[in-house]
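Q: I'm writing a short methods note and want an example of a predicted protein-small molecule complex. Could you take the sequence and the SMILES for zinc ion and return the bound structure as tokens? Please keep the output block clean; save any remarks for afterwards.
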Amino acid sequence: MTAAPPVARRRLAPAVLIAVGCFALGLGAGALSSAALADGDAAAEPTTSAAGEAVPRVTASGAPDVSAGEGTVPAVEVTTADIDGPGSITVVVNKVRPLQPEQYAPEDLVTVADVPGDATMREEAAAAMTALHAAADAEGAGFAISTAYRSHSAQANLYAAYAAEQGADAADRFSARAGYSEHQTGLAADIRADGCNLEPCFADTAAGRYVAEHAWEHGFVVRYPPDSEDVTGYIYEPWHLRYVGLETAAAMHESGIATLEEHFGLDPAPEYR
Ligand SMILES: [Zn+2]
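A: Understood, no commentary inside the block.
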């Protein structure tokens, strides 16, 4: 994880917003183009405004973070990311944002090729997972998938089992209720390495270290980063990867903002309403 610098970047928010407001029309197609990220190298070099101020680059999905509540400059809509549609690769699902409909099931599930585990994900996410695995494996950091897509009923059964075993309060810290799970989107996967399955030790495996550093290059984020339970509603899960697409993953890598909630300026989701 590169979770360090969000504070410094966040303090820039008002300036960014002013600059965007002044120069929204001046941001050429190049600055907003996803093609700029197609090589996986989301350069962080600042552009320079007409007034000579350094202006952090704004990408199509890299909406400036306004969650800190600083200033009153209205945010300019620079993102076209769909965070509501259950079939959107940028859908945000958490304890206050259930899937709509809660019974949603993707239509383009495929088996993730060339990754042990026989898991299924949506087609685009599966291809990205295959590529991530190949890159990791080439560095001696291969992994398997424990589970990826889980249907509404499978999630209901899993949560019920955890709740029966450990109580609902404990289960809610690591397992989603049906309709509230990223696994139901077909965009998330729990991965494992030898000797460590769904445990904190995964972060210290070669695979865990690799995905923390490189998953974004293939459009994934470690969805439940450390010290973010009050935002995401879940304990640190170094094994849970969520496909969000290269634009969003690169923008978050560049900004250092570690959660989708903060990236998209959403309310924290520590618990169910
Ligand atoms: Zn998971």
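A: Remarks, as requested: The domain at 14-63+90-263 is CATH 3.30.1380.10 (Muramoyl-pentapeptide Carboxypeptidase; domain 2). The pocket of zinc ion is lined by residues 183, 188, 190, 240 (CB under 6 Å).
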